[in-house]
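Lay summary. Proteins are chains of building blocks that fold into shapes, and those shapes determine what they do. In this project we predict the shape from the chain. Here is one chain we studied, written as its sequence of building blocks.
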Amino acid sequence: MIGAEWRKISPLHQIRPEMPPTLIFHGDKDSVAPFPTLTAFCQKMSESKNVCELVLETGGVHGHINNDMKLFDNAANQTITFLSKQQLGTTSGEDTLVGVNYFAGWWKELPNKWHGQGWNINQPDWRPKFPGRVPLLGEYNTQATMDLEIEAASSHGVDFFAILYYFPQPGARQAKHAPMLNRGLETFLASPNADKMKFCIEYCNAPDFSARNEKEWSDCVKVWVAAMKHPSYLRVDGRLVFKVHGISQFLKTHNHDYKLCRKRLDALRNAVRGAGLGEMIIGVGVAGQTPPLGRGWPPAELFDFTATYMCVPDIKTQETEYPYATLAQQARTTLKNRVADPIPWMPYLAAGWNPRPWTYPKAPPHYQRFFKFPTGKEFTDELKAMKEALEKHPSLGLPKRDGTRRKIFTIYAWNEFGEGGIVAPTKGRGTMMLDSIKHVFGGDNR
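And here is the predicted shape, written in a compact code that computers can read:
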């Protein structure tokens, strides 16, 4: 009946970029639509940058879902989940996504980071000297703390935590600390409140925590993909969001071999596809003082966006505190330098920088620069300025498949209590920082 015209109606031969997201339920014993044809379809969809997920039923024959009510109900629930991930029907008027960096550096075992610079067991506990920084929701990264933090953040307009992940590099001096530093990711995944907000992973690739070879990278990928299966993992335009903390160290770890860098990132993307999770948006951190990148910036071929965790102004070190306005101006200057870059930039906003608990006479210069904490009005004004900048500059945010971008930014930080980037409720300021976010971006009714 179809004859020579079969290609005109073959789904496999109609694939092109920007096709609708596709979810397929299939049985591996289907003799009408052979399984290899389905895998070829999914592969070609991925190559065309389309979302395609395959749910395979072992032993399933043609129409297997229609013959089993339990399978049918499961398929319906999976379809609802799939569609919700795609964020279909959003427009240019969609809300700005507000993220806050999450650093799980707070454990009870000694040495810990409540005990001064170097976190030496002989250093005194600095909390009595800086009581205003002590968090109200829990002083350690326990499950109870995370449960309360999600409740507080999500009810004040925070859409996601960007959680730092540290690879326990074998033989590194910090290897024993990595499992504790990763408690933030573990407790978020286990939280009964996890459905109230999103999260994404920022791979903190500092020298002691960098995956140096294929085996170590593969170990990281297994952890990341497992976390990405959680329904609260952040997606933009249906794609999973992931960030490498710093470009300089990433290139250094791979001997500035761009082919090797691409191989590592492709291994992550392929693992995500193989798990049926679709596509990714992978970004990398650039220093705040970096000049405009220009069209020939090589890493633009590897990554989808850039971002900045935090930037301390390069000014004179002194004991006296600079005004918060000086710190805020650095973020605004960084933004201006990024608007014409070859790939989009996800902006940051500093909630503070004042590392007095961790400084010492021979500390690095950025640990000898201190800034006053913002007042509620100052922080609110910077949030409003960020909102306006995202509306004004189409290059800011995360890229979407149609060439536009999703308005999104991060705040440094939820719980950098030692460095002074603090959004979490504290004894000194209560919920002031969260109240400002809620005032500008809304709360539960977003």
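What the prediction tells us: The chain has two domains: 3-86, 97-441.
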